[in-house]
Amino acid sequence: MSVVAEIDVVAALRRLAPELERGEQQATTDRMLTSDTWKLMQDLGILRGLQPARWGGGEISLRNQLTHVYELARHAPSAGWVAGVVGSHPWQIALFPEETQQELWGDNPAHTNSSSYAPTGKVEKAPGGYRVNGRWSFSSGGDHCQAVILGGNAGMFDIGGFEIPNYGSILLLGDQYKLEDTWHTAGLKGTGSKDVVVDDQFVPEHRFLSHPKYEYNPACPPPGFETNESTLYRLPWAVMFNLVLVAPVLGLTRRFLDQWAAETTERRSNWGGSLSDDPLMQMHLANAEWVHDAAVKKMFEAVDTITQAAEEDVYLERPERARIRWNITKSCQEVGQQVNHLVRVSSGRTAFIDHPLHKLFQDVTTALGHAFLSSDAVGQYYGASLLNTKAPEVML
Description:
Blueprint: H1 9-15, H2 17-30, H3 35-43, H4 62-75, H5 77-86, H6 89-93, H7 98-105, E1 113-116, E2 122-126, E3 129-139, E4 147-159, E5 162-173, E6 178-180, E7 194-204, E8 208-210, H8 211-215, H9 237-266, H10 279-311, H11 318-344, H12 356-367, H13 376-386
Parallel strand pairs: 1-4
Antiparallel strand pairs: 2-3, 3-7, 4-5, 5-8, 6-7
Helix pairs in contact: 1-4, 4-5, 4-9, 5-9, 9-10, 9-11, 9-12, 10-11, 11-12, 11-13
């Protein structure tokens, strides 16, 4: 039975908003999500919405999953971020060979994994698999997970006569790594995005998934396609992973805009009257609302584009993937600029850490520091493709 059967997740999240907000406060103090919040996310199916139904997952549409993540981030930004990231991993595990899926989910399909995709550690080919060693950072939600996906370059890969790094995702089980508590930050404190440390571990071949081999070669589908036939698992990984980060950022900024409006309504001008009557303040908010709404629209347009392509068995070339990622990452950065602007025109008291806007501002700033939310590289690739000139190498 699906873990999200007949549950109106959005309505449940709104009903549970006070509990989620209390959990966020505690998570900020603990620098990791509370067990109660984690259980709530499990009970609502948010962490397993993209898991294949044959493993007890929801196998819901990406549009519905992102709607749930967006709503969760409105009430609990750290939980929303973790749900976006960790909730995407069952989708990726479904691309691995059946042996890998059995290894992770066979005894307990509710097992979850965190991740750290930047190839900062070493993944080296070895007989029958790979040797993994080093440190990876920003593994959100790792305290509650039983495995981790790490990014690494395992030698080189030939694609169209060009040699590029064989960048891939490699799955390590819980006894093959440790978490180091490095997560002392100004924003998104509750995500517990700690370092993953690996000391010379062997990982078998079936737990490595090459991205250039499968992402850029439509004639070579990932091995998981053999058992997970839904078009949900035909979505391009880099675009999909981008979207699961965009959704919590936009949900978080929705919360910021609501809070800013509430604070401004209560603020009195130094010269008398309410600041809500100030035409400039009204225009500041109107501009921010426009940018936020446009960003949400761009997000769902991207979801619909890649979903339709998967359903029609259309392979999206790299320039089109760059265009999609440019649209959604640029939208997030523009929303972030609006948040910065609204803080600038707010009371100087927002500098105090107990001000309602302070934490939200720090959360937005921290989230937008994620490498996959930087619009520069994909924008340059997209622009280069429009001009028919050499584009930089970038994961698309």
